[in-house]
Amino acid sequence: MKRLLKILPLTIVVFVVLFAVYILVPLPIPKPFYIQLDMGGEATATPVAAATVATRRPTPSAESSHALYDMGTRIVNLADTNGRRYLKLAVVLEVSPVDPAFFAAEAVASTAAAKEGKAAAATADAAAAQKLVDSKMAPYKPAMDDLFTSLLSSKNADELFTLDGKNKLKSEMMQKLNGTLKAVKITQLYFTDFLIQ
Would the pLDDT of 54 be above 60? Predict the structure, then answer.
């Protein structure tokens, strides 16, 4: 017992030193977090996931009449026999108006600012154009959400696991959306997140 008590402090010191080296030294092995020292000497913890994942908001294309509309993320129970499977799905729609004036005013302003070389103005105009797209699409969101929920909850996991199943789901969603929406046409549908659990 006395021998254990003599070795214990040394063991603790060795463990602390190895842990400090593991955290502070940039090694090519996965770590739960990193400690970064700035010039002021403060230590900051940066989670790996936050450091590697960048979020970006789709923006409408100023060169064409197409615009992107983010439908957000949804979680839907699938129609599997055991009822315990679900789908987490994020969808971005590429929409094209039936009437070109639907999104045109902001897109023209954005293109003009970009041609003048004013990057900040072009960025502000692109943000304004995205707000216009969001406001124009907002009245359709409840109908689109209902359509997505009804369609997705009728599918089972086996249908959606394959690439062919995902492509069939995309085309079915586009067909049903284009049948529902009158002022815009869905030209493309993007799955930005697709998880079956």
Answer: no
